Amino acid sequence: MLNITLWGTRGSIPVSGPQFRRYGGATTCIEIELGGQGSSTPSRVIIDGGSGLAALGRATEQNWEDTILFQTHFHWDHIQGFPLFGPLFNPTTNLRLYSTSREGRTLFEVLSDQMKRPLFPVELADIAATLHFEDIDDSGQRSFGGLAVEWAEMCHPSGSTAYRISNGESTIVFSGDVEVRSGGRSELIQLARGADVLIMDAQYFEHEYPDRMGFGHSTYNDAMEVALEAGVDRLFLTHHDPTHSDDALDEAVAELRKKVDGPLQIASARDGLQIAVGEPEGTSEVEIAAQAT
Ligand SMILES: [Zn+2]
Ligand SMILES: [Zn+2]
Fold first, then answer.
1. pLDDT tens-digit profile of 82-105?
2. Is the pTM value of this prediction over 0.70?
3. Fold held by 2-292
């Protein structure tokens, strides 16, 4: 079973206020817990270090000895949680970080620059944790014990990586930031084929897209079409625009559900949502959460 927690589901910049209370305002961070998969399998996988990463660090004080992080790209809303990620200051933390280079710069260089004085009081070289950085190709696949990871490059300014993560029984795909109408649509469909869960960038509502073409993001409709063509079971729309209130997201997802004539389950992602993939049908937290939204 894969236990997913969404720690940040907002795009572009964190938001707060009464109109965002239910879906939340932290930027991209996904945690996948993998307990009991065997000694060579990491105990936890993280995707992206948006501001949600700081909340993840505060929520769990132990078990950072064997964690892998996959980075989609380096836009601010996907790295800004690193400096305030508490386990960086814990000497028992052992974190392996994988990312494609962007514009000739590695993840290590970008995170180091982000923490250089006067931007932050503690530099990356001075933290207590052990970090291992590894550059990966634009696309590829790799096994980490019982975990199979496949990734592909998406269409986004300076690029972005989509990841498919499977433990052999359950599969989750995260799209990264992607504008499928500008490219990479077939690559994402191929990567997401038959997945249990697809978590996809759907920053815009359909009527907003003409004014935001080329910004690097997809719409609710785009995500639904990709999910249907890929034959996934459950779609979670994420990277919510910072102007979208809880009520607007409710309305958009309700409209989208009316367009689906089939088994695809659709929900807007929200901060704190837990998704248990691989539980018997009808008992998962996903369905309870989806009904609640
Ligand atoms: Zn983003
Ligand atoms: Zn981006």
1. 999 999 999 999 999 999 999 999
2. yes
3. Metallo-beta-lactamase; Chain A (3.60.15)
